[in-house]
Amino acid sequence: MVGIDLTGRNVLITGGASGIGKASAKSFAASGARVAVTDIDRDGIQETVRGLGNEHFAIDGDISNKNDVDKIIKAAGEALGNIDILINSAGVSDVIMSTVDQEVETWQRIIDINLTGTFLASQAVATDMLKRGNGCIVNVSSIAGLVGLPRRNAYTASKHGVAGITKTLAAEWGISGVRVNAVAPGYVLTPMVADLISSGKLDEKNLVRRTPLGRLASPNEIAEVILFLASKLASYINGAIIPVDGGYTAYGAAGPAVEIE
Ligand SMILES: NC(=O)c1ccc[n+]([C@@H]2O[C@H](COP(=O)([O-])OP(=O)(O)OC[C@H]3O[C@@H](n4cnc5c(N)ncnc54)[C@H](O)[C@@H]3O)[C@@H](O)[C@H]2O)c1
Prior knowledge:
Elements: E1 10-14, H1 19-30, E2 34-39, H2 42-50, E3 57-60, H3 66-80, E4 85-88, H4 104-132, E5 135-140, H5 153-173, E6 178-185, H6 191-198, H7 204-209, H8 219-230, E7 241-244
Parallel strand pairs: 1-2, 1-4, 2-3, 4-5, 5-6, 6-7
The structure holds nicotinamide-adenine-dinucleotide.
């Protein structure tokens, strides 16, 4: 992004093998930051890092597992020195089914990855950030953290939870120089959404009709807002949940927002 220089800053990005996390890795590296990406997908993070150039790192692990998170943060600290910025992008979609049919194991797995993973990574980086009196965390919530998406109950609960801990951490850590914010993307054309469209669980045309900008987002359009929130340009933004949704959550009329064939 023009005008954002993060030279000398070190960033850890979860979910960096794909989608919004991968696009963020590219944006941060292009802005001069040193990047460590982590993900459960080992091959994916190697591919992300190969595309970034030198001085960037791949660390695999499961973000929902506390032992893995501790190892990831230790390895990232050793590779980068300090972690100045944490981006919590690792996440999974819901099964998209009637809530009465949802298995508690599926519910729990979605909460564990999307919400507990965000908590564990934030907690693990914060110890050092708070000691240094400097740090920044950007969480990836969703429009599902602002409104209710039927048949996506665990996902919606997890993303409301991410919005909630964004506010509590911002309120708790702001005085120590650690800012915590979140983006709330609408529908973004990443592998997650492409899979839901190709399996018939989401209807792309209906999503476009419901979005005032009349299209889905690219991963880069979310990554650039994440980059802004992590930069000095956002130095007085703390505890904010920024919709990056083409107007999806602003739209309140009964019918479609745009007409398409
Ligand atoms: N794509 C969208 O429309 C959209 C909209 C709103 C919010 N989001 C959120 O954005 C974030 C990124 O999603 P995306 O669309 O880029 O999806 P994606 O599937 O392309 O990327 C998600 C990444 O998270 C990783 N991941 C999953 N479980 C993990 C675990 N246990 N430990 C470590 N990594 C794990 C996956 O391997 C994958 O690389 C997610 O939190 C998602 O909920 C996406």
